[in-house]
């Protein structure tokens, strides 16, 4: 049968009302055609419904549109489904609302019949959607109609429960609950479908890049596409992985599922999808995801690189990913009577990633206390220190509180590890006994290590002071403040160096060794955080020690050489003294030219100091020798091997820069 459109609707109209009138005409004609067809094909089709359809066609646009839409859908399922058409027509009245007066009320007569009829109507309509192979949300009209039916079912179930005291209603309540459960299962599937298809509408050139994953499909079609954030450095951003229309669909489903008592199931579907997003995004930051056992077995050099990646990842997670996920949770689960579903969903989304990150930090905290680990562990501690306020804000609800408490506990364990590592430095110094003399009396490796260690550690002065002060408050007065702790370490170092200097047989080299190492200690403690922690008094006292070492070196080495140049002796003694001086001077210069003074300033100071006592004494001695009466003309000059300039040149050859 073909629809005949009157000529007046074929003409071109400029009025804005012509199109709605045309639609109304089509609906009325379609309703008459459908009813007429059913009347002729089914002997069970009463004349009453045919006349009722005429009345409905006269009623109103909304009522007519609704009837035509549902009739068309029923015919699409089964052209001979006269029973469905009867039920659809009986559900529409002149009030304009489908089933508007069919909701059960306590005051209506014949309640059981009306309840059963209304429930049958909803069951037929909803069951048609539940058994569909294709997703309901693939068609916006179907999704809206289905939600309307679900709302009516939930409202009817609420009215039925209000009459639970009536035994005759119990059967209807049971049927309604079973239907609600079937609806909730289907909504759960649809919720997952909407989340899985959401990324398809994104532009791959945006802040996200897509990767297809066909492991998960709906029906006969694969829809899974994973969207992950690119690594970025700007933490003042919010990731919006879902479009507003998708969020609206998810919210509509979530509201019905929570109303139907399936809030946890809805949360489970949501969190599983969002966890996949976070896991994939975390992998883009090149974090290996080591277990605690793997961390313990991995060489420290490899862990240092992993710690750097961990710090970047944890900062991105807590400053960008998690705040964005919280915002998305709030939007998807808005308009709910309670916030528990929102908080539970957010916790489930974040729990896996948070646990993975915290386990790595915990494994580092429980690892070895070797001193060289201090700086990377300190980096971990300070990264968590910066993020603890953010964690407390994000994880403020009761579901997330275990994550918050665990983060705080691991941060504390990192502090304990740092304190233990710092204390281990003392044991390292004690366990470094003198074995053999260090070549040339230069700066010993233990001195370089300890001073560079302390200087680097003091760059995190605030954190170290906090850790030591916190430990002191918890354990009593046994823990020393940072300044006292560092002074104690330096006392141990100086005591260790005192033991090492005894390995030298030459007393002059002993003092030069202490002078070299003491100068290095002083230089590393000047004009920096370490010096400010030690204080000016310590620096002044240490500088005085250096002057003492310098004086002892000069006295033990060059005073003996200069002592040979005695001018009060007779001429033969003068000649013998000069001969002894030349031999001793040559010997000392030859020996000390192999000694090491790395610091250029100290090297020049020592040479100048030596020249300052040797050259004047030598010049005076030569003058005394030349004016001696026993010397006739130039006979004494063959005994004068060096001029003053020669001595100065030899003295400038003392000491090497390095061994």
Architecture overview:
- This protein is mainly α and 659 residues long.
- 68% of the residues lie in helices and 2% in strands.
- It is built from 24 helices and four strands.
- The protein has helices spanning 7-10, 18-41, 47-59, 61-77, 82-90, 111-130, 140-162, 170-197, 244-259, 263-284, 292-297, 300-332, 340-365, 374-394, 401-430, 445-457, 461-475, 482-501, 507-524, 529-534, 536-562, 571-592, 600-626, 644-651, and strands spanning 208-212, 217-218, 221-222, 225-229.
- Strand 2 and strand 3 (221-222) form a beta hairpin.
- The longest helix has 33 residues, at 300-332.
- It is rod-shaped.
- The termini are far apart.
Average of per-residue pLDDT values? 79
C-alpha geometry = rod-shaped
Q: Name the helix and strand elements from N-terminus to C-terminus, one letter apiece.
A: HHHHHHHHEEEEHHHHHHHHHHHHHHHH
| Rounded radius of gyration (Å) | 47 Å
**What gap, in angstroms, lies between the N and C termini?**
109 Å
- The portion of residues forming beta strands comes to under 5%
**Helicity level:** 55-70%
Residue runs with pLDDT of under 50 for 5 or more positions: 1-29, 31-65, 75-109, 200-229
Secondary-structure content class: mainly alpha
The major pleated sheet works out as: 2 strands, antiparallel
Q: Please count the beta strands (DSSP E, at least 2 residues each).
A: 4
The number of distinct helices, counting runs of at least 4 residues, comes to 24
Strand order of the largest sheet: 1-4
Observed structural traits:
two-stranded antiparallel sheet, 24 helices, Exocyst subunit Exo70 family protein, mainly alpha, 2% strand, protein transport
């Amino acid at each position: 049968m073909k629809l005949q459109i009157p000529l007046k609707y074929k003409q071109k109209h400029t009025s804005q009302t012509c199109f709605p009138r045309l639609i109304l005409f089509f609906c009325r004609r379609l309703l008459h055609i459908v009813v007429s067809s059913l009347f002729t094909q089914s002997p069970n089709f009463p004349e009453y419904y045919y006349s009722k359809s005429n009345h409905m066609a006269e009623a109103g646009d909304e009522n007519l549109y609704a009837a035509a839409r549902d009739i068309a859908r029923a015919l699409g399922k089964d052209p001979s489904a006269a029973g469905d058409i009867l039920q659809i027509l009986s559900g529409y009245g002149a009030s304009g609302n489908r089933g508007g007066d069919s909701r059960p009320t306590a005051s209506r007569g014949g309640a059981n019949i009306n309840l059963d009829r209304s429930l049958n109507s909803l069951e037929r309509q909803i069951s048609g959607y539940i058994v569909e192979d294709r997703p309901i949300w693939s068609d916006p009209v179907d999704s809206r109609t289905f939600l309307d039916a679900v709302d009516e079912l939930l409202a009817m179930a609420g009215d039925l429960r209000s009459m639970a005291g009536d035994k005759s209603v119990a059967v209807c309540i049971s049927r309604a609950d079973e239907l609600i459960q079937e609806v909730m299962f289907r909504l759960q599937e649809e919720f997952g479908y909407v989340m899985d298809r959401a990324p398809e509408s994104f532009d791959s050139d945006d802040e996200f890049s897509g990767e297809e994953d066909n492991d998960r499909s709906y029906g006969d079609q694969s829809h899974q596409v994973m969207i992950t954030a690119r690594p970025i450095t700007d933490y003042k951003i919010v990731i919006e992985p879902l479009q507003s229309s998708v969020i609206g669909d998810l919210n509509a489903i979530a509201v019905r599922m929570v109303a139907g008592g399936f809030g946890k199931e809805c949360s489970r579907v949501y969190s599983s999808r969002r966890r996949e997003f976070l896991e994939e995004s975390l992998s883009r930051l090149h974090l290996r995801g080591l277990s605690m056992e793997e961390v313990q077995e991995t060489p420290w050099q490899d862990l240092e690189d992993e710690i750097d990646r961990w710090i970047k990842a944890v900062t991105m997670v807590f400053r960008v990913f998690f705040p964005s996920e919280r915002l998305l949770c709030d939007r998807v689960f808005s308009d709910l009577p309670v916030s528990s579903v929102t908080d539970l969903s957010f916790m489930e989304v974040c729990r896996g990633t948070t646990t993975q990150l915290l386990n790595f930090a915990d494994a580092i905290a429980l690892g070895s206390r070797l001193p060289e680990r201090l700086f990377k562990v300190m980096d971990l501690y300070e990264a968590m220190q910066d993020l603890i306020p953010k964690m407390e804000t994000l994880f403020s609800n009761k579901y997330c509180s275990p994550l918050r408490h665990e983060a705080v506990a691991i941060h504390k364990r990192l502090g304990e590890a740092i304190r233990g590592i710092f204390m281990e430095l003392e044991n390292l110094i004690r366990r470094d006994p003198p074995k053999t003399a260090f070549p040339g009396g230069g700066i010993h490796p233990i001195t370089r290590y300890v001073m560079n260690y302390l200087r680097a550690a003091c760059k995190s002065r605030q954190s170290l002071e906090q850790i030591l002060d916190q430990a002191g408050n918890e354990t009593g007065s046994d823990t020393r403040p940072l300044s006292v702790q560092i002074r104690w370490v330096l006392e141990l170092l100086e005591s260790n160096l005192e033991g090492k200097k005894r390995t030298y047989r030459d007393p002059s080299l002993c003092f030069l060794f202490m002078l070299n190492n003491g100068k290095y200690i002083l230089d590393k403690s000047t004009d920096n955080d370490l010096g400010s922690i030690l204080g000016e008094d310590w620096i002044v006292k240490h500088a005085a020690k250096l002057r003492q070492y310098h004086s002892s070196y000069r006295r033990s080495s060059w005073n003996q050489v200069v002592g040979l140049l005695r001018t009060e002796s007779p001429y033969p003694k003068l000649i013998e003294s000069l001969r002894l001086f030349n031999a001793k001077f040559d010997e000392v210069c030859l020996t000390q030219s192999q000694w090491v003074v790395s610091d250029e300033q100290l090297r020049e100071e020592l040479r100048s100091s030596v020249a300052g006592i040797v050259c004047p004494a030598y010049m005076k001695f030569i003058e005394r020798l030349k004016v001696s009466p026993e010397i006739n003309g130039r006979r004494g000059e063959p005994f004068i091997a060096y001029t003053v300039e020669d001595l100065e040149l030899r003295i400038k050859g003392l000491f090497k820069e390095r061994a």
